[in-house]
Amino acid sequence: MDFIFYLWLPIIILALASLLKFSTKIKGNKKPWIRIEETKENE
Amino acid sequence: MSRHLSMRTANPALQSETFKKSMADSISNERAMTINGVVNKTGLSLMLLIFGASFTWSNPELSGLAIIGSIVGLILAFVTIFKPTIAYITVPIYAIMQGLFLGFISRVFEMQYPGIAVQAIFLTFGTLGSLLLAYSSGLIKATENFKLGVFAATGAIGVLYLINFIMSFFGTGIGVIHSNSTMGIVFSLGVVVIAALNLVLDFDFIEEGAEMGAPKYMEWYATFGLLVTLIWLYIEILRLLSKLNSRR
User: Fold this and answer.
1) Quick one: which H or E segment has residue A12?
2) Do A17 and B134 touch (CB under 8 A)?
3) How confident is the model at residue B17 (pLDDT cuts 50, 70, 90)?
4) How many whole angstroms separate alpha carbon A32 and alpha carbon B139?
5) List of chain B residues whose C-beta atoms are within 8 Å of the C-beta of residue A16
6) pLDDT for position B55
7) Residue-wise DSSP of chain B
8) What is the mean predicted confidence (pLDDT) over B113-128?
9) Taking the complete model, does pTM exceed 0.90, yes or no?
10) Most buried among B15, B59, B99, B151, using CB within 10 Å?
């Protein structure tokens, strides 16, 4: 395979890993649809 | 110590003292450095660089202009480092001068290996985009150890190039720098990686400057730092590609 491919490979992998990191960040920041709260027994 | 290291960058233009000197001005200055300002000024400087490069690219017989460009560029780089307040004048001229130099050497490489200049340009901007994404996502963080490592590696490369430059006066040199052997290619690849990692330090410098409210003229100075790294990265990629092409 052309050596240019091997030079682009780390750049593409780094970009994809960064996008993955972005997506996990966004997921982590989302508020859950359902919130289960603990209730006291006599409430 | 920690504060000193947090502002350290391997780029000779972006040293820790730079912010300290400018902070006194920033207190009295209402207009502060912003990331957006640096982005705009970098875009403008790159356009000026391309303008200069296109001139020597289309007129390769004007090799004298490229030599003038590199010498004037070097003088302007020192002026910018020692007097950052006038960076708004020196940096645009520096960009044009470096453009004249880069356009000529790109054309020389292109005549030897057709298509090499376009590949080097795309790889340089690909690396810039990818590292910008990695930095803003938090995948790569400019920690103290990271800064120290890149600083040491850049210094080592600088010393090696200086020794090679001195040796060239005696008709010799460090073979691995110019050789297209496997060791030569591994060396070039290493230099490209270090040059690319310097971009992360530049991003960190810009972010820190904006956070600390550095004065407005530091936008031009940060642009200069980024330009120096990008030019170095482009030249090293060009050198690596020429080594790889010569083995075909």
Assistant:
1) helix A3-29
2) yes
3) low
4) 25
5) none
6) 94
7) -HHHHHT--SSTTS-HHHHHHHHHHHHH-SSB--HHHHHHHHHHHHHHHHHHHHHHHH-TT-HHHHHHHHHHHHHHHHHHHH-GGGHHHHHHHHHHHHHHHHHHHHHHHHHHSTTHHHHHHHHHHHHHHHHHHHHHHTSS---HHHHHHHHHHHHHHHHHHHHHHHHHTTT---HHHH--SHHHHHHHHHHHHHHHHHHHHHHHHHHHHHHHT-BTTHHHHHHHHHHHHHHHHHHHHHHHHHHHHHT-
8) 96
9) no
10) B99
Question: What residues does each domain of chain B span?
Answer: 10-246
What type of residue is B175? G
CA distance A31 to chain B (A): 20
**How many CA atoms, within 13 angstroms, populate the side-chain half-sphere of residue B107?**
19
Tell me the chain B residues in contact with residue A17 when contact means C-beta distances shorter than 8 Å.
Answer: 134, 139
pLDDT of residue B15: 62
Q: Is the pLDDT of residue B7 over 50?
A: no
- B137 vs A25: CB contact, 8 Å cut-off? yes
